[in-house]
Amino acid sequence: MGKNDIIEKxxxxxxxxxxxxxxxxxxxxxxxxxxNAQLIMQYEKADRLVVxxxxxxxxxxxxxFHNGNEEIGxxxxxxxxxxxxxxxxxxxxxxxxIRHISFKNDNQRHIFSSKELDIVQDADRLDAIxxxxxxxxxxYGGFKNRTIYxxxxxxxxxxxxxxxxxxxxPTINHFYEKLLLLKxxxxxxxxxxxxxxxxxxxxxxxQQFFDEWNGEK
Length: 217
Ligand code: ADP
Ligand code: NI
Prior knowledge:
By secondary structure, this protein is an all-alpha fold. It is 59% helix and 0% strand. Helix 7 (130-143) packs across helix 9.
């Protein structure tokens, strides 16, 4: 199977698997991450197939929608690739990226790293900030029935992975606990440049949000 056929087949598989997913983690999130990754790749030397497959398969079974099970995603991706005769090195690399891409696994970065992970991680992080990041955060908050903001619940920085996973805090807190921190975590130069613009949009949004909250004109 040629590379384009593999990509087309992967897209079809991902669309089917993510039918009915929460709006922030659906096919369109995958599509945007895939596009972001292709953009970043224009300026980086990387294995295209690994980057594209990892971008397309990175959220195939997100642990937070599977009772915290972090194995299903890598397993399903691996199975899909094996069925489609992708070579073993590519499979292993893509699975490693899926395992290590998440913000909450950031403290494990020493275990695996690669240029291709850098690119896909930046592409995923870009989709968590800017206008789309805001839309995704509130969609997820609504999906989880969280409050928008509660002045009595302060953001918690430096949460452990377990605390982060079970947090039920208001959605605005997520900006301080994760979204505003992403700009400094970008791996590639292109990623950093795009993140700076999207970060500024988050800052402007929060400024306006609190102005309105406090009843100012
Ligand atoms: P990671 O797996 O990298 O830790 P997540 O998959 O948890 O990241 O987050 C992806 C996106 O889901 C976030 O950028 C945000 O849009 C949304 N999200 C996750 N957790 C929350 C939360 N507690 N409140 C609001 N949005 C959230
Ligand atoms: Ni993602």
